């Protein structure tokens, strides 16, 4: 029997890119998918599909059975939720239980997709890396806290139970197949459509989603058990990112820089509307708190140890805008 490579979260933005990269490398794929999930991103990928959900650990044994490798990419990725408990359960306890199931099944190597959200952040424009100090109380936002705790669980299992896991920490992926879209994808989509009149003074690290996927494969092939590798691209001030998006999309760039105190009441109203009517908020108080620090990171370790070589951020933005336009999301 051919040993499978399991990918969780394969219907999503990063997961589908990881699945495609592994397929190109000759892996026999098993994809763990949730019942009722949008499967457009994997419609053309030959794979064994198995039902599974991070909130249902009883589904994990079947998913990992007969697998040589596991790529755990699935996560509840939302920057704001009215009730944080389900997200914490899925991202933290779900990850822990999946790791234990993989260990029990004799999986040879695991690549766990964490996030730069789980890492330390300097925030003043200085560049952080895998060794930048971090403490949970300094991690802002429920999603970021869940990813921090999940990463700590994986590291603890590596130490205590010799879990054969390598951790990758993607920065802010951009590119094709962003079907939801992600919060960053929505931001780029709004800007490209001319719906972004203003910006706040912050910064992000932009990376092509296919380079993140390549980094996952390299982590399997060359990564050291228990080590973390940032999979990032280029650091951009939000002002400069929007200027680039606007140039590519041929729309005027946002020119108004808004101080946070002006947006704070809007965030409060947006959260109230979300709780009352189930509308996803475009801005929240946690988002504003996160934006106070520039999220700049270095991928030098991944370049040095894995041979990681990301393309320019402009290519990621171009591919994202082209995909949004070709799929009717950008008129």
From TrEMBL:
Pfam families: Epimerase. SUPFAM superfamilies: NAD(P)-binding Rossmann-fold domains. InterPro entries: Epimerase_deHydtase, Hopanoid-assoc_sugar_epimerase, NAD(P)-bd_dom_sf, NAD(P)-dependent_oxidoreduct. Residues 6-232 form the NAD-dependent epimerase/dehydratase domain. CDD domains: AR_FR_like_1_SDR_e (cd05228). GO terms for molecular function: aldehyde dehydrogenase (NAD+) activity. One of its GO terms (cellular component) is cytoplasm. This is NAD-dependent dehydratase. It comes from Acetobacter pomorum.
């Amino acid at each position: 029997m051919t040993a499978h490579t399991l990918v969780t979260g394969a219907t999503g933005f990063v997961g589908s890119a990881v699945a495609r990269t592994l397929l190109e490398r000759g892996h026999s794929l098993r994809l763990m998918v949730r019942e009722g999930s949008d499967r457009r991103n994997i419609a053309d990928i030959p794979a064994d599909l198995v039902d599974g959900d991070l909130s249902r650990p009883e589904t994990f044994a079947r998913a990992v059975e007969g697998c040589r490798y596991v790529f755990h990419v699935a996560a509840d990725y939302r920057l704001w939720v009215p009730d944080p408990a389900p997200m914490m359960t899925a991202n933290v306890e779900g990850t822990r239980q999946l790791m234990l199931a993989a260990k029990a099944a004799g999986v040879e190597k695991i690549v766990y997709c964490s996030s730069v959200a789980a890492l330390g952040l300097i925030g003043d424009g200085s560049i952080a890396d895998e060794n930048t100090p971090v403490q949970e109380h300094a991690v802002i936002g429920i999603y970021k806290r869940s990813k921090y705790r999940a990463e700590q669980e994986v590291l603890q299992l590596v130490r205590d139970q010799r879990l054969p896991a390598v951790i990758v920490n993607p920065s802010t992926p951009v590119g094709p197949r962003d079907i939801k879209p992600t919060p960053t994808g929505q931001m780029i989509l709004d800007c490209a459509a001319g719906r972004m009149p203003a910006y706040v003074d912050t910064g992000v690290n932009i990376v092509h989603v296919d380079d993140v996927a390549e980094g996952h494969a390299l982590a399997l092939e060359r990564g050291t058990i228990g080590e973390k590798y940032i999979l990032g691209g280029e650091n951009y001030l939000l002002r400069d990112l929007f200027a680039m998006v606007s140039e590519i999309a041929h729309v005027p760039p946002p020119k108004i820089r808004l101080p946070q105190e002006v947006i704070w009441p809007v965030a409060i109203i947006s959260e109230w509307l979300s709780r009352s009517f189930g509308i996803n908020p475009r801005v929240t108080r946690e988002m504003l708190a996160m934006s106070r620090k520039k999220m700049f990171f270095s991928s030098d370790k991944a370049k040095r140890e894995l041979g990681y070589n990301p393309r320019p951020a402009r290519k990621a933005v171009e591919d994202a805008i082209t995909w949004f336009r070709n799929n009717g999301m950008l008129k």
